[in-house]
Amino acid sequence: MRASQEELIRGGTARRGGRRRVFAAAVLAAAMALTGCTGSGGDDDKPSSWQGGGEKGPKAAATITEPAADAKDVPASTAVTFTTKEAEETTVELKDSAGKVVEGQLAEDGKSWLPDGALAYGETYTATVTATGDDGKPATATSTFTTMAKPGKQIRVTSFLGDNQVVGVAMPLIVKFGRAIPEDYRDDLQRRMTVTAKPAQEGIWHWVSPTEVRYRPKEFWKANSTVTYKVQAGGLPLGDGWYGRSDLTVDIKIGPSFVMTVDNRTKKMTVTRDGQVIKTILVSLGKKTTPSSSGTMVVIEKLRHTVFDTMEELGPEEGYRTEIDYAQRLTWGGEFIHAAPWSEGVQGRTNVSHGCVNVSMKDGNWLFANTRIGDPITVKGTERKLQNGNGWTDWNMSWDEYVKGSAVPYEPPAEPGDDTSPSADEPSVEPTP
Q: Which residues contact 7 (CB under 8 A, 6 or more apart)?
C-alpha cells in the first residue's frame, strides 16, 4: 500500500539493504535451471506456445524469475515474480498438480503476483505468465516448482480484535506474533500485511516491539467505516528457520465518533458524538502527588464492577482496596475513567484521585453505556505527561513519529488530481484489487 507501504504482492521482490533473498532455494535453482522457463521476444525468439508457422512472432516477451523452473523446497508464501518486454497486458495463472487454479492478485507495478493464501506444502505448481503486445500476439513463460515440506518451526499470528467487532474511532489494529521477528525480516512480513478501509483512509503499520505491530490511520478512523486487515504470513520465512504458521484475515466495523476531552483547568469533560457536543461532565483528576497523565489515550477495557487493590504496591499506609463501578482502563499503569461517589462533592473543583478520571455514579453509568473499546480520551493540563507505551498510546505520537516505526519507508498517497494510481496494496485503497 502506498500510503502505508504495506505492499500486497511484492513478497517475491528483493529485500532492501542487500540481504540475501528469503527464497534462497528458488534463487539457487534459478542459477542452475533458468533456461527451464520458456520465454519469447523478437523475431528470432519465439515461445514454444507460439504456433504462427512462418508468421512473424510476438513483439512481447515474458520471463519468470521466481520460482525458477524445477525449483524444490519453495516457501509456501512464494510470489511469482517476472519480467516482461513490450507488453500491453500481462496475466498470471497458477495451477496445482490437479489443474486447480489458484486465486491471486497481480501487483500494480506489473512485476509480481501473489496467491490469495499460502500454498499447500509439498505440492507441485505450474505458473504461467502471458504477455501480450500491441500486435495482439501472446508470449508465455512457464515455471513448474514444488513447495517445501511443512516446517517444524512455525510462528503463531494472532489479532487482538475478532471478526465483526465494533470499535471506537481511535482503535489501533493490533497483530501479535508468538516469537520475536528479527528486524531484517520485518519488511518482508509488513509487505504481506494489508488494510482496506471503506471509505478510503491513509494509514501505516508501526512496530511496537519485535512481537507486536499496530496500524492506525493518519487521523481517527472515519465514523461507521468498515475495515479489513490481512496478514499473509503462512509459510513465510521469518528468520532462524522459523516460518509463519498461517494467514490471518479480520473484518471489523468502526462505530460512531465518540470523543472525550478533559481539561484540568476547568475540571470538566466534554463529550462529542460525530463532531457535536452531547454532554459536559464534572471530573476530579489526580491530586498533585499522583497526577493524571496528559495526552491522548484509548479505552482499553471496560469493567462494570471491579476492585482496585494497591496494598501490595503501595503498602498498608498508602495502599487501598476499593470497590469500583463503571471502570474504563486507559493505561497499563492503572489510570481509569470510573465512577467515584466519594468525590462527587468536589468534582468540577478539586483533584483528589490517585490519577484516575473520577466522575459521578450517574455520569459513570452514562459513559459506560455509550463508550466502546477504542474510543479516545484526551486529558490536558496536568503535571504529568503520558508515557508512550503506557497503554495504547498510538495517538499520543505525531504522524511523523508514528511512521518511523514502519519497517518499510513511508510514501504519502497521490495528491488529488495526480495521474498516479494508488498502489494495489495500499491499506486505504477501496476496493481491494
A: 1, 107, 191, 408, 423, 425
Over the stretch 335-384, which tens digit does the pLDDT of each residue have? Answer: 999 999 999 999 999 999 999 999 999 999 999 999 999 999 999 999 99
State the DSSP H helix or E strand holding residue 365, giving kind and residue range, or none if neither.
helix 361-370
Q: What is the DSSP string of 223-242?
A: TT-EEEEEE--BT-B-STT-
- What is the pLDDT, as a whole number, of residue 414? 72
Burial of 52 (0-12, 13-18, 19+ CB in 10 A): exposed
Other Cβ atoms closer than 10 A to 350: 12
Quick one: three-class SS letters along 314-349? HHHHHCCEEEEEEEEECCCCCCEEEECHHHCCCCCC
Element (H, E) at 208: strand 203-209
* Cell numbers describing residue 350: 478539586
Phi-psi region of 314 (alpha: psi -120 to 50; beta: other; left: phi over 0): alpha
- CA 330/CA 390 separation, integer angstroms: 9
What is the Cα Rg of the chain in Å?
A: 27
- Distance between CA atoms of 364 and 11, rounded to whole angstroms? 49
Phi then psi for 391, rounded to 5 degrees? 110, -170
Secondary element (H or E) of residue 403: helix 399-403
Give the model confidence (pLDDT) of 313-347 as tens digits. 666 666 667 899 999 999 999 999 999 999 999 99
d(CA 236, CA 151): 10
Residue type, 336: F
Q: Give 163's contacts (C-beta < 8 A, 6+ positions apart).
A: 250, 251, 252
Q: Is 270 in contact with 379 (CB distance < 8 Å)?
A: no
What are the contacts of 181-184 at 24+ separation with CB within 8 A? 181/155, 181/210, 181/211, 181/238, 181/239, 182/210, 182/238, 182/239, 182/240, 183/210, 183/407, 184/15, 184/17, 184/19, 184/239
Residue that wins the pLDDT comparison between 199 and 16: 199
Q: How high is the pLDDT of residue 20?
A: 34
Grid cell 489501533 — which residue? Answer: 172
For the record, the C-alpha cell of 303 comes out as 469493567
Buried b (16+ CB within 10 A) or exposed e, 150-166: ebeebbebebbbeeebe
Give ∠ CA 94-85-37 in degrees, rounded to 5: 45
